[in-house]
Design goal:
It is built from 15 helices and eleven strands. The protein is of the alpha/beta class and about 375 residues long. The strands form two sheets. A six-stranded mixed β-sheet has the order 2-1-3-10-4-11, with helices on both faces. The protein starts with 7 loop residues before the first helix and ends in a 14-residue tail after the last helix.
Length: about 375
């Protein structure tokens, strides 16, 4: 590869230095805390036992792939497990910003994608965070302009957007290009395919203007493009064993995990209960997630975007650790990550304790757990 080997740490740290683009009711600091009185009512359960801290700060994205957080907070399912401990939510538009907030203590627990998790762990030499649970799988598609791209081979010479240099979808697309036998300079995005890093918020406008020919993006951006006339050429889930790969997992600051294990367990119980409720009540959950998005961004998703996007996402307690390990290897192959030891990135003991108590199967850490 013509570019020098560069780590995800460098590329994503640079992105983290950009002004934070948070979407919530008000903008402040790292992300935005929901301060609306009605919203706050769902963040504290009536009564309940006293835990080891009065508040827990939870970060997530206003994305459907973060519906465990959207629904869990919207429906009070996480607050219910926390008793008198208040949930203070903050939303983010980029993984680097959320990792920065976690490192600064502005959030304690976060819902986030695999690449930022890997980067945060490696940048801190394994001291900043642990992945403690799963949240979502799938929800990523390659969508294209059908007038310009009819087959996968037609992508050669085209301009395809990904959300950010070194982010989860960027790494996946670079790996797919490599497996096609094509070459692209990972840093510049130039090569047999032009990889154009474009914020998800502006990708639909870029597609509409014709400045890109397609995009490898998460939901609901993919379905927004389809609503504009794009076609789904590839669903990333078809590239993975059992059609499953991690798109969102749950991380916690190691300091918070050490000092407040009872609170971490309560949030995880809330997450497990939320995923169970989502899977048992998909239509109600979809409506709840959309209501949360409206609260956070000021508008809800239309049905022709919401429905196909929701169908492509699976909500799961399993962090699908083996797929995160594979994604890290893809980043190394692309030249975006130095070879690194991810041992210790997972601590699934609290989650497995909860799953066992609920009579559910325990989940594996692919040999990357705390020893």
């Amino acid at each position: 590869m013509s570019a020098p080997r560069t780590t995800l740490r460098r590329s994503i740290a640079a992105a983290a230095a950009l002004p934070l683009l948070a979407v919530a009711l008000t903008a402040c600091g790292y992300g935005s805390e929901a301060k609306d009185d009605d919203a706050k009512k769902t963040n504290v359960a009536a009564g309940g036992k006293k835990l080891s801290t009065d508040t827990v700060k939870i970060g997530y994205f206003p994305n459907l792939t973060h519906a465990t957080a959207l629904v869990g907070i919207q429906e009070g399912l996480i607050a219910k497990e926390l008793g008198s401990t208040e949930v203070k939510p903050s939303t983010f538009n980029a993984g680097p910003s959320e990792i920065e907030a976690l490192n600064a203590g502005s959030i304690d627990i976060g819902f986030i994608g695999p690449s930022p998790s890997i980067n945060g762990f490696t940048k801190s030499k394994g001291k900043s965070l642990r992945i403690i649970g799963g949240s979502a799988s799938g929800g990523v598609k390659l969508v294209v302009n059908p007038k310009k791209v009819k087959t996968l081979d037609d992508l050669k010479g085209k301009k395809i957007a990904t959300p950010q240099l070194g982010n989860t979808q960027d790494v996946a697309f670079l790996n797919w290009i490599s497996e096609k036998g094509w070459t692209v300079d990972a840093q510049s995005g130039k090569g047999d395919v032009s990889v154009v890093r474009t914020d998800n918020k502006v990708t639909p406008d870029a597609y509409k203007s014709g400045s890109i020919d397609g995009a490898w993006v998460p939901e609901p951006t993919a379905s927004k493009l389809v609503e504009q006339g794009a076609k789904v050429l590839l669903d990333e889930s078809t590239l993975w064993p059992d059609n499953k790969f991690v798109i969102t997992n749950i991380i916690v600051s190691q300091k918070f995990l050490s000092e407040h294990p009872d609170v971490v367990e309560a949030v995880l119980r809330g997450s497990v209960n939320t995923n169970a409720w989502i899977n048992a009540n998909p239509d109600k959950a979809k409506a709840s997630a959309n209501a949360a998005l409206k609260t956070l961004s000021g508008k809800e998703l239309p049905a022709d975007v919401l429905d196909p996007a929701w169908k492509s996402i699976q909500f799961t307690d399993d962090p699908l650790a083996a797929t995160l390990d594979t994604e890290a290897k893809h980043a190394v192959k692309a030249g975006l990550l130095d070879e690194t030891d991810l041992t210790g990135i997972y601590d699934l003991k609290p989650l497995n304790k909860i799953l066992k108590a609920a009579g559910k199967p325990e989940v594996a850490d692919a040999g990357l757990g705390v020893k």
